[in-house]
Description:
Bound molecules: flavin-adenine dinucleotide
Structural class: alpha+beta
Number of strands: 10
Amino acid sequence: xxxxxxEDQRMFVKMFEDFCANEVAPLAQETDHKEKPPLKQLExxxxxxxxxxxxxxxxxxxxxxxxxxxxxxxxxxxxxxxxALTINVHVALVGSAILRHxxxxxxxxxxxxxxxxxxxxxxxxSESGAGSDAAALRTSAVCQGDRYILRGSKTWVTxxxxxxxxxxxxxxxxxxxxxxxxxxxxxxxxxxxxVGYREKTMGLRGLVANxxxxxxxEVPADRLLGQxxxxxxIALEALDLSRVGLSAICLGAAxxxxxxxxxxxxxxxxxxxxxALKQAIQNFIADSRAEVEAMxxxxxxxxxxxxxxxxxxxxxAAITKxxxxxxxMRIANRMLQVHGGYxxxxxxxxxxxxxxxxxxxxxxxxxxxxxxxxARDQFAPHGISLRP
Length: 388
Ligand SMILES: Cc1cc2nc3c(=O)[nH]c(=O)nc-3n(C[C@H](O)[C@H](O)[C@H](O)COP(=O)(O)OP(=O)(O)OC[C@H]3O[C@@H](n4cnc5c(N)ncnc54)[C@H](O)[C@@H]3O)c2cc1C
């Protein structure tokens, strides 16, 4: 067992640190306070090849292994979670699905454009009545000759308002559950697609998440991703990968919270000395540091499983995302407490980090659904088949 990063990975870490310090962190507060889409950050990321981070060089990607990808997400998450999540959706949810299930024509057309940032990907799965129960989605895709006609709507589609490509999951047959769902690559400018209202969010205020409507949208048959009926499996597989990325973002944001809290505890004085000398504060710092290290190991293990194509990733990604999102949230909560009243003020980064992290226990599978998946896996060998 080898816990060390290889030479390439160490070099990447330096590159990610420099990139985030120069191009992402300085814009984080403004991105949040002004609800600015992270377009400048995306442009800078595309120049470094990060928008095609895990795509093969053949498609102008950076061909990073999954540990390096997790390191990239960690550093981006530390600098600005809005930017990190925007890129994770583009690369790990949309790009990975095309890479694994696209035809050669689809890959050649879309992946280089995604690497260059000319096309930003959005993942359109959730609907107003189908969030945790995504297989209950109602958007329909009816085959008519050489095209499909899409009708329905999708909620909270991250990147829809800044992207060009929608990966849309729609029902192509009445087969129950996930079996009747297919995936489509839909250009946002297709007649019959309407990108609606941009959601106002508590945190991640740089994220551009919109409702998207499909009203008789004609999608050419060659825009079907994978086979008919394979869509739900494609979505779950993409979620396995993106949960690794999202967990790494939580790790990075938790590290940022811990660094901010530590610095504040050293600089801020009460009762004649730095509050760092008070045991209550030391306990906050110690518990948080211990949890950060636990998160790091989980993230690297899940990324390693993803790299191996190991089937244990499904449950491990759920475990990792559950723990990382919940640990990160409570670390941010403790570090806000360390800041006292200052922590509640917009001037301090911990206030933003706290709000950003709250979304991580909901997006890409709520903590309750992840616990269900883990319990289902645990009970299965005992002949108990759990239903959500
Ligand atoms: C910031 C953000 C970005 C997002 N981006 C995207 C995106 O790009 N694309 C996309 O498709 N979706 C996106 N989503 C939607 C996200 O995937 C859903 O919010 C999530 O899956 C939960 O669905 P829901 O909100 O409809 O809640 P519901 O499923 O309605 O759940 C409500 C509550 O009930 C609980 N619950 C539901 N079922 C069970 C059960 N069986 N057992 C126990 N508890 C249960 C849930 O845990 C939750 O607490 C985003 C969400 C957020 C917050």
